[in-house]
Amino acid sequence: MEILGRERRRRWSTAERLEIVAAVGVNGETLARVARRYDVSRSQIYQWRHQFRKQGLLPAPAAPTFLPVDLEVPMRHAEPVLEDKIASPVIVELCLAHGRCLRFDAGIEAAALTRLIRSVEAA
User: Fold this and answer.
1) CB within 8 Å of 49: residues ≥ 6 apart
2) Distance CA 73, CA 30 (A)
3) Is residue 23 within 8 Å of residue 34, measured between CB atoms?
C-alpha cells in the first residue's frame, strides 16, 4: 500500500513543539502564519502552549504594569468647576490581555484593583 501526500497524524518531539510555540510573536509573526508555516492547526498550537505553561516550560504571560497617574493636576484649558456642581466620579478604563477591559472608579484601592485584575485574567 502506498500513501500519497503527507500523513496527517504526525509525531512532534517536545523540542519541535517548543520551537513552534516560541515562534509565535517573534518579529511580529502571528499564530496563524506560524501554523501555516509548520502545517499545524492553530488549536494545536494553543493546546501545546497551554500544556507547556502548565508544565513550567514556558514563562507565564507578562503581568500588568501599573503606571502612576496624577489626577489632581489641573489641565491648562480645563473648564472651571462650579462650587454648587456635584462632582461625578472619575471612571478609568483599563484594557487587559485578550481584549478584556475593566472600568472602575479612580478612587479604588490598589489592593482591590490588583485582586480584580488577577481574577479577570484568570477567567
Assistant:
1) 21, 24, 58
2) 41
3) yes
For residue 19, what are the CA distances in angstroms to 11, 60, 62, 64?
14, 17, 20, 26
Least trusted range by pLDDT, from 5-9, 31-35, 50-54, 84-88: 84-88
- Between CA 51 and CA 18 the distance in angstroms is 11
pTM higher than 0.90 = no
59-118 tens-digit pLDDT: 766 667 676 776 666 666 656 555 555 556 788 888 887 778 888 888 888 888 888 888
What is the C-alpha separation between 49 and 1, in angstroms, rounded? Answer: 36
DSSP state letters, 23-77: HTTGGG--HHHHHHHHT--HHHHHHHHHHHHHHTSSPPPPPP------SSSPPTT
- Please, how many CA atoms are within 13 Å of residue 51, restricted to the half-sphere of its CB? 10
Torsion of CA 78, 82, 87, 92, to 10 degrees: 0
